[in-house]
Backbone:
């Protein structure tokens, strides 16, 4: 097959937008460090001023225990006080980085009311899930002190499979409207791509991103019978059909490579390892320091959250590295399936311009925080493919 170089006016990186993109990324990064710093300081205050013990004692009236050593009401109240306290203290930062900044940089199309509504829905959803998990953890800490981490990891694995399946039909519609992509040129192109890959696509949907943002995106979502390719409506009207086709091919690549499963499984191994280390640290703290009443003492919540947070931070570069590899492979798939190198490059460039994505972040920043290869690397990948096309 010949390499297509006949696309009209491929997009070019906008120098002015790139300057803004770097600025935007820097401010957001600093704000997330501040957020993290507040969490760290908060945990240290709890751990080193005996506030962790004091709060447990203050919540003593709630110490009903349905099974020996598990205090569900005390755990619930303790956890809510910590989490809601943190949300309250960091609310100005959430408002500034989530609402003020995206408006200042022309990325958000949301009203304050809409933004607050989303914030509230997201918070309630996260709280419900987190409370279920923390109650499970403490019920198991009380009843299975040696193997709790294994059970928790298994339940979380099951849970993430169910959530991955339900998210596109149950969770995301709470935030965005979805529509089936109308039959036409694009659906035909996609079906042709899918046929060549000998795979079946269960559906292509457009997501009304324009109700919230000027940025564009596309994704593979769902598992099993909810598996689908989702295109932001912010992409449909501004990209050439060939550009959208390579984006669809990239998403199809995730589909063909079973990437959602790969991410769930790899994440589960990290979770298992993390919980095991947390288990060791918790046993050490309880059994040698004689500070807590036991493993399932509600006063261990700040320590538990600190350990989980620290582990999450340490493995972030690992999961991001794995994600970048998967994205690289999906790009390779898109290039091989379409041979539309110029359209690929043009689509990437348009995305960087539109989404204010820093095309060339510092290598250390990309290594630590980015789950996609930088636009510059993706463009280079396309050039390498053009120089040595592979089948
Ligand atoms: Zn991707």
Residues:
């Amino acid at each position: 097959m010949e390499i297509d170089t006949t696309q009209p006016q491929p997009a070019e990186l906008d120098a002015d937008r790139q300057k803004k993109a770097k600025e935007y990324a820097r401010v957001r990064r600093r704000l997330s460090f501040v957020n993290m710093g507040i969490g760290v300081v908060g945990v240290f205050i709890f751990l080193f001023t005996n506030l962790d013990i004091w709060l447990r004692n203050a919540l003593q009236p709630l110490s009903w225990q349905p099974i020996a050593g598990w205090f569900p009401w005390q755990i619930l109240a303790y956890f809510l006080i910590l989490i809601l306290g943190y949300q309250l203290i960091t609310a100005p930062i959430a408002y500034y980085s989530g609402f003020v900044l995206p408006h200042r940089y022309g990325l958000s199309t949301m009203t304050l009311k809409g933004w607050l509504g989303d914030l509230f829905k997201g918070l309630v959803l996260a709280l419900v899930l987190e409370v279920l998990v923390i109650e499970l953890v403490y019920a198991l800490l009380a009843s299975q002190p040696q193997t709790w981490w294994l059970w928790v990891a298994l339940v979380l694995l099951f849970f993430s499979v169910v959530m991955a399946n339900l998210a596109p039909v149950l969770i995301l519609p709470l935030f965005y409207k979805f529509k089936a992509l109308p039959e036409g040129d694009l659906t035909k192109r996609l079906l042709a791509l899918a046929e060549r890959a000998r795979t079946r696509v269960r559906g292509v949907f457009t997501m009304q991103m324009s109700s919230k943002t000027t940025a564009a995106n596309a994704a593979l979502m769902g598992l099993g019978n909810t598996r689908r390719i989702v295109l932001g409506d912010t992409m449909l009207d501004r990209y050439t059909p060939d550009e959208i086709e390579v984006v669809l091919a990239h998403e199809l690549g995730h589909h063909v490579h079973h990437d959602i499963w790969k991410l769930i499984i790899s994440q589960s191994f990290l979770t298992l390892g993390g919980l095991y280390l947390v288990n060791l640290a918790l046993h050490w703290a309880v059994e040698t320091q004689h500070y807590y009443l036991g493993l399932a003492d509600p006063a261990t919540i700040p320590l538990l959250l600190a350990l989980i947070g620290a582990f999450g931070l340490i493995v972030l570069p690992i999961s991001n590295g794995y994600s970048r590899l998967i994205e690289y492979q999906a790009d390779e798939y898109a290039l091989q399936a379409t041979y539309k190198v110029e359209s690929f490059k043009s689509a990437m460039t348009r995305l960087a311009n539109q989404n204010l994505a820093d095309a060339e972040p510092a290598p250390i920043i990309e290594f630590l925080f980015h789950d996609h290869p930088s636009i510059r690397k993706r463009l280079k990948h396309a050039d390498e493919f053009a120089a040595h096309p592979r089948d």
About this structure: The chain has 14 helices and four strands. The longest strand covers residues 228-232.
